[in-house]
Amino acid sequence: MGQLLPNSNEELRTTDEDAEISDLQLIYQVRDALLEVTDGRENYEELVGCLQPKRNLNSHEAAQLVTILKALAGVVSYIDSVHHGTLIFALERMSLWNLATTYKNYDVTDIMDALIELLVSLAASKGIKNKVLSRVHDALKQIADLVPLAPLQLSPIVVQNIPKRYDVTVHEIVMYVENMLKLESGSMGEIVGSTMLPALVDKLIELDVEIGLDGKIHEDAKCIFEMELEDIINFAADDDENYNSMCVSEMLNRKKLQGNKVVEKLDSLIVLTFLHLDSCQSSGRLSEVFDTLLTSFKRTVLNTYKSKFTQFVMFYVCALHPELCGVKFAIVLRDMFESPVNPPITRMSVVSYLASYLSRAKFLSSALVADIIQRLVDWCFAYCKIHDLDMNLQAHQVFYSGCQAVMYILCFRMKSLMDVPRLRMQLIKMPMLLLWKHKLNPLKVCFPSVVEEFLK
């Protein structure tokens, strides 16, 4: 990055003889200058002075300005409106669209990038957020109005700077995501929205895969069917008729997963996502948001083996609009399972999620559930006719996954289906008995807890 700032106990100015220092060291120096403002202002004033506009900016001074802006982006939580008023004033004077005029002798692209990075960090900080957030978003809107392609530059900056799971507190990552979602639903949402939500889902998955079902971080994971069936049935039998739409925080509480920071971050971010989805429904944007989330689900969640909770974001958006999102999601999963174009691992994952979804989604009609069971049974029975061989787990994994899904759904929905005469008759006419007694013997291969509960 060129010649950078000297150590914090020296003046905040550079000369040709100064040695290069790391980005981390620079962040520490700028942080120290902010912290020491009440005791001695020399370093702080030098820092503010570096931000003052200079018309004849040479390459060395430009590099210094870029590195200082980047360093400030790394320590925004230390900026205080009471003690650092002159710094904030200097930053407010740095107008993105006037940089080219201010620094006539220099290509200001790097300076603009660094300033945008700082603005994003300020928006996500807890230091002066009450005074900065609205101004930052207003400034971003003005930039987008004047430079329509600017949001395309902003999106990768926001995504690349999402806090790492171990680097920040729960409060800080929630603050960052809040501002991501504000961008998604704001005036630039049409441009950046398709980037913000998938990035959020990726972050949820990152946290999700580290959480074991016992609340500990470990390497092993259980697939969706290998959760204790008794726990799931108790979960589904909850007296609260709206259990489908409950916050994942409640689900995490029931599973007793509190006690580590990863759980707290995932819990907080999923609840925040739910609130955002509620807002999207109120504003009439739920359909487009659903399409974005569905694409992200197929790309990220579907084939992530250790995901246990992130899929509830999809379940929740479906519960908000059952007729549109809820039905569409079920049909998409069904069709993906039936399509031979998809690889076996994808089809197995799809039917697992389909079973989990239909088992919990009381907002879906019994008729739809019966029709999907019919399609699954018909597919499995047709498979039996083609593969009239002895059972082979490896060769017939997709088939066994389909059979297991049928049993799993019926463990939850049998009573509601049998209470409707037409649906009861539909179930009776399905070739299930022939399916279960076939040479492929799904009752012997499928997960024992599911089979045992189904046979009851």
From TrEMBL:
Instruction: Provide the GO biological process annotations.
Output: transcription initiation at RNA polymerase I promoter
Q: Name one GO molecular function term.
A: RNA polymerase I core binding
Entry-linked InterPro entries: RNA_pol_I_trans_ini_fac_RRN3
Lineage, top-rank taxon, reads Eukaryota
Listed Pfam families: RRN3
Cellular component per GO, a single term: nucleus
Q: Which family is this protein grouped under?
A: Belongs to the RRN3 family.
What name appears for this protein in its UniProt entry? RNA polymerase I-specific transcription initiation factor RRN3
Which species is listed as the source? Vicia faba (Broad bean)
